[in-house]
Design brief:
- The strands form two sheets. A seven-stranded mixed sheet has the order 1-7-6-5-4-2-3. It has a five-stranded mixed sheet with strand order 8-9-12-11-10.
- The chain has helices spanning 3-9, 50-62, 74-82, 99-111, 127-130, 153-162, 213-226, 232-242, 245-264, 283-289, 305-314, 344-349, 366-377, and strands at 67-71, 90-94, 115-119, 135-141, 166-170, 188-192, 206-210, 269-273, 296-301, 319-320, 330-332, 356-360.
- It has 380 residues and is of the alpha/beta class.
- The protein is 36% helix and 15% strand.
- The N and C termini lie far apart (51 Å).
- It folds into two domains: 3-242, Type I PLP-dependent aspartate aminotransferase-like (Major domain) (Aspartate Aminotransferase, domain 2); 246-377, Aspartate Aminotransferase, domain 1 (Alpha-Beta Complex), CATH 3.90.1150.
- It binds pyridoxal-5'-phosphate (PLP).
- Residues 73-75, 98, 100, 141, 145, 170, 172-173, 192, 194-195, 204, 206 line the site of pyridoxal-5'-phosphate.
């Protein structure tokens, strides 16, 4: 089955009791045993639940993995991946990474004796300097947040494998509709299903997918032992989103391309970050690595930071809010939102100036989005 069909038909037969096309929400903490010699297929919802199992099978199929575990949030999924490490181990982490992952690595993991060194994933050779004899894992993303840089997944995997590292890749920004990192050699793919997989800004969740049975078992053991589970309803809701992922992503990409081209031509915008623009230095790499350029665009507003803030606050169709990947367009201001955990110096070092806005392009008519940006830019 092809991607769009897998999203709709993997593990989604009508229910046995009533032939309901959409399976019910199994809102039950426990499942009855026939007798003490017959353990039910699923016995307790912390360990497994029918709605969770279905979602896991579908996401595994979309990432070309053999095993998926879903979690109560994207950060719970990142934490599960780090649970493979022990005190004394070391992580090589891309410096251009999701703020929450950076915070976890700098605040929680050091207390557990796990250390981290950053490297510049846009220069895969810098990984070599970040690795020491205790390094067990490399973690990175592409496209990155909020700069939308494209990292060469194959090249980083190749370097990491030469050092014998596990490769963890956060595929939240692209979604499995645009790239499948397991096929490029990653060992573990992480998702915040809160974003494109759920797609409707109504649920928080995470997932880890792998081709490796042992790593898959480790993720299952972690969730069973620590209880970082999503509810049956959240799994059901996320699956409802996943069904339309492919067709949503096509529109996200087309709308983002239109918005990025509009912004690039606007005199009050000094820089646009979108891998779909021909002028983008990583356009060729993105074309080779992805089947589309995604729904995220960031830009720098000319003039002082007060201009960027004024534009963010003047937008009417775009909602001023954290998060991304939903059907409605959002504008984010990284210094006060996604990257508030960093100091001004750390942000500037990472190419996140206070003049930057991050746009999550939704499924509205792109003309309305462009007109909204036009009116907001006219206020400065
Ligand atoms: C949002 C996000 C996360 C964290 O996910 P939550 O569901 O908010 O816990 C991790 N990585 C990336 C790239 C994200 O965008």
């Amino acid at each position: 089955m092809r991607f769009a069909t897998r999203a709709l038909r993997v593990a989604q037969e009508p229910d046995k009791q009533y032939q309901a096309v959409i399976n019910p929400i199994y809102q039950s903490s426990t499942f009855a045993w026939d007798n003490l010699d017959t353990i039910p297929k699923i016995d307790y919802t912390r360990c497994q639940n029918p709605n969770r199992q279905t979602l896991e099978q579908v996401i595994a199929a979309l990432e070309n993995g053999n095993h998926c575990t879903v979690f109560g949030s994207g950060m719970a999924a990142v934490t599960a991946v780090f649970s493979l490490l022990q005190a004394g181990d070391h992580i090589a982490m891309a410096s251009d990474i999701y703020g929450g992952t950076h915070r976890l690595c700098t605040t929680v993991l050091p207390r557990q004796g796990i250390t981290m060194t950053e490297f510049d994933a846009s220069k895969p050779e810098t990984l070599d300097q970040a690795v020491n004899s205790n390094t067990k894992m490399v973690i990175f993303e592409s496209p990155t947040n909020p700069n939308l840089r494209i990292m060469d997944i194959r090249k980083i995997v190749e370097r990491a494998k030469a050092h014998g590292l596990w490769v963890a890749f956060d595929n939240t920004f692209a979604s499995p509709a645009l790239q499948n990192p397991l096929d490029l050699g990653a060992d573990l793919v992480i998702h915040s299903t809160t974003k494109y997989l759920g797609g409707h800004s109504d649920v928080v969740g995470g997932a880890v997918v792998t081709k490796d049975q042992e790593l898959g078992n480790a993720m299952f053991e972690w969730i069973k032992n620590t209880g970082a589970i999503p509810s049956p309803f959240d799994c059901w809701l996320t699956l409802r989103g996943v069904k339309t992922l492919e067709c949503r992503m096509r529109t996200h990409c087309a709308n983002a391309q239109a918005v990025a081209e509009f912004l690039e031509a606007h005199p009050k915008i000094s820089k646009v970050h979108y891998p779909g623009l021909k002028s983008n230095p990583e356009h060729a790499l993105a074309t080779a690595q992805m089947t589309g350029f995604g729904g995220m665009v960031s830009c720098e507003v000319a003039g002082p930071a007060t201009n960027a803030r004024a534009v963010a606050e003047s937008l009417k169709v775009f909602l001023l809010a954290e998060s991304l990947g939903g059907v409605e367009s959002l504008v984010g201001y990284p210094p006060l939102m996604s990257h508030a955990g960093m100091t001004e110096d750390q942000r500037v070092e990472r190419g996140i100036p206070p003049t930057m806005l991050r746009l999550s392009i939704g499924l509205e008519d792109p003309t309305d989005l462009i007109e909204d940006l036009e009116q907001a830019l006219a206020t400065i």
